[in-house]
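TL;DR need structure tokens for one chain.
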Amino acid sequence: MSYIMVDVESDGPIPGDYSMICFGAVVVEDGLARSFYGQLRPISDQFIADALAVSGFSREETLAFPEPQEVMESFAKWLGEVGSDRLMFVSDNNGFDWQFINWYFHHFTGCNPFGFSSTNLGSLYKGLVQDTFKNFKHLRKTKHTHHPVDDAKGNAEALLAMKEEMGLRIRL
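>> reply
TL;DR here they are.
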């Protein structure tokens, strides 16, 4: 099994009505050397300026991004090259990130290589420390910049720290 840490930036709260602007993915393994970055042309005329601003891109810039089908097909190919019989989607906010990745995969490629489930990093940490008021973010080494590869890498660093420093039993 391979854990893939994913982070999504969008221009609104839900897929379909709004668009995934960019996303990053990192294979959770020593070195964190394998990553994917995708920018996607909006699928809707709707957008929320404040949500888009988080990504650092203007609406005009996003309109020049590649077509979503092309990006999602490339992502699926990259995931296939990870070399695992099972891929586990994990993110800091899987309720948000998963809905976009899942919707885009099903809409543009017909299936989701991750299957039907995901893992929430924050919930995993809370269970590990047995305290729902605790937060894992101090375990990140890479600064949280809202560039999705940076953010996925920082979250992957946190998961590795949970394994190596805190005794989380996980096969990576």
